[in-house]
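COURSE: Structural Biology Practicum
ASSIGNMENT: Worksheet 4, Part C
STUDENT ID: 0417
INSTRUCTIONS: Below are two proteins. For each, the amino acid sequence is given first, followed by its structure token string. Answer the questions at the end about the second protein only.

PROTEIN I
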Amino acid sequence: MWFKERNGKKISFSNVGDDEMLQNDFYLSLRLDKWGASGSRWKDAKVKGGSAINSQMYENIDLDYEGSYESDGREKGKYLRIASNYLDILTVDKRAMYIMALEIATAIDGKISEDDKKTWLTIEEFKKKHQDILSLTFDEANEMSLEEIQTIDAIDDPIWEELDKKREEYIQIHGERVYEDEEDE
């Protein structure tokens, strides 16, 4: 998402779980090592209003199904979801998230929603909408992010409260999941 290779080396990956688990509980979490892969300047980057550990320097981009174990299976659905830890996302990570959305939508001939499934964009519409970010090279996006990190507030609890609120709203609309062992009682 950020790049296919860096300094002449292909990017490696690993997974945890057996084939069945990966089929049933698919979850992918990606993070750019801003200190290693992005250059030593990140070590000196000043974070506004907090520690680097609570900032977008440690951004994860997650891909899972709506019914994944992260939501305790309470969310019903067959849609893939891409989420970030923060509302304010650094340009380098935003670019990666857009590339991930495009790669997945292209692979499954799908559409992309950015407003909780109210509207859907075709792949071409999404590309056009985000052309300003997608046209950047990794190095350009990284440079912009080195500036942005100095102006975005570091926060202790990213968006967990907002996610919990949305889950509760979803459950009110669609109902609580009934587990098999609960039916026996």
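PROTEIN II
(use this one for the questions)
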Amino acid sequence: MNIARKSLIPLQLATLAMAGLAGAGTAHAASDAAPLSAEVSAQSCGKTPAKNSHLSRATMLKRGKSWVTAKVPYSQTGTYCNGYGRYRRDCSGFVSMAWGLHTSYWTGSLLGVSKKVSKSKLTAGDALTHYATSTARGHVVLVVSKSSKGVNVYSEPHSGSHAQKQYWSWSYVKANHYYGIRYKNVK
């Protein structure tokens, strides 16, 4: 290592330390304004199940609604912890939590713990999914209710958003190649 690089290292470390101190006050203020961040959540953390749970549809909806009520912010790297355990804060982590899975699955791996279900048989606690192709990313949402015109879902939609209830028309579902899946351990 040359001498110029050696003398820069202490300066770089000092700069990082000062940035950390300056950011500490900001992070604290941000946590007061938005206590929903998984890293600053004051809620008690329940135990994530050791194996995949057998849950009723009502329990799945209750679990899903807990994130919607808390407006859990989307993140593919962060986690959120509440009375149901710690799960990744993206769409598949959200469905994993609602279904009581032992870990945060990814959209494609949810297919291993579920089976396809037709639109006519789709019901509360099921999910709508499509997984990545060359032109689209995978996504999954939890079904709350359906009608002849569309479906209400709980969703962790995308970065910059949070868990929420949404309405999707059947034309939207079809145009975006979603199909129904049902958790194999539903009671």
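ANSWER KEY EXCERPT:
Q1: The chain has two domains: 1-33, 41-183.
Q2: The beta strands are 79-82, 85-88, 114-117, 127-130, 139-146, 150-155, 164-169, 179-183.
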